[in-house]
Design a protein that fits this description.
The protein is mainly α. The chain has 8 helices and 6 strands, in the order βββαααααβββααα.
Length: about 280
């Protein structure tokens, strides 16, 4: 008889050694690759859709500027949302503690905060160059899905975003840390990252699968003409809904038993659906 798959298993690698004490994080590498490849997805769709309200030959140049501003905004937004969602980790009694808010290289970022920050930083530049924002966000939506899909690979490599013990078929058991021969360790309770001796919910895996599904749905729906803003709404509803559900198994809570990401997801879904209800873009 064939064995039944009861859980997923793989070792983690928290740092890739280069030389001496210098090492890089697989997480950081996957985020950078996700952003670059996702930006290329967005560039291609922006050029096909015609996002400028007037003829211009500068769309590639403007999109490069938009990507630069989006990257800066994403870094700021990702760190800001993380700090706000985890204020207990960032006391403000002493000035030196306040400085820890800015030490992003020590870890601690929010994916949804990064998306919000990237959009907030890019929109003024888009308006100034007279881009049609709905078409621009339609172009960006599949690129963000690609970025999340690739970026989450880094979370899987380092064993981050863990929930509690489970016997779910997608439960994950760490088989060791490639730089720590003592791992896996006894599970200590709610954790963010590590290698433990029980099968746990791996929320980064769920997010990885959700982003892949959202990307597949968008690419399928792209085969027919849609109203301006359609893919922006699809992304907000599908990815926001998936993130809202998967975050119930995350240990950190913020308000009313919900995480900061859940609150952000609900806000994004509400804004997207309210825009459709108020402006009725499907009737244009």
């Amino acid at each position: 008889m064939l064995p039944v798959l009861a859980e997923l298993r793989w070792p983690i690698l928290e740092r890739i050694p280069l030389f001496g004490d210098l090492a890089v994080s697989p997480h950081g590498i996957s985020i950078a690759l996700g952003f670059l490849i996702g930006a290329q997805f967005a560039f291609r769709r922006a050029s096909l859709r015609g996002i400028a309200r007037r003829p211009t030959a500068r769309i590639p140049e403007i999109m490069q500027g938009l990507a630069t501003r989006g990257a800066i905004g994403a870094i700021i937004g990702a760190r800001f949302f993380y700090v706000v969602s985890n204020l207990e980790l960032f006391p403000i009694e002493r000035a030196v503690d306040v400085l820890s808010w800015f030490r992003i290289w020590e870890g601690g970022i929010s994916l949804l905060g990064g998306i919000a920050g990237g959009i907030a930083a890019g929109l003024p530049y888009a308006w100034r160059n007279r881009f049609r924002v709905t078409l621009l966000l339609d172009s960006v939506a599949p690129g963000v899905a690609v970025g999340i899909f690739i970026g989450r690979i880094g979370d899987l490599v380092i064993g981050e975003h863990l929930g509690g013990p489970t016997d779910f078929i997608l439960g994950w058991r760490c088989t060791g840390n490639l730089r720590d021969p003592l791992a896996p360790y006894p599970w200590p309770g709610p954790v963010e990252q590590g290698c433990y001796d029980v099968a746990l919910h791996q929320t980064a895996l769920y997010d990885f699968l959700a982003a892949g599904l959202v990307l597949a749905v968008i690419m399928l729906l792209e085969r027919r003409p849609r109203f301006d803003g359609f893919f922006m709404v699809v992304f907000a509803v599908l990815y926001g809904g998936g993130r809202f559900l998967s975050d119930f198994i995350r240990p950190e809570k913020m308000v009313a038993g919900l995480t900061g990401s859940q609150l952000t997801s609900l806000a994004a879904i509400a804004v997207a659906l309210s825009w459709v209800a108020l402006f009725r873009p499907q009737r244009r």
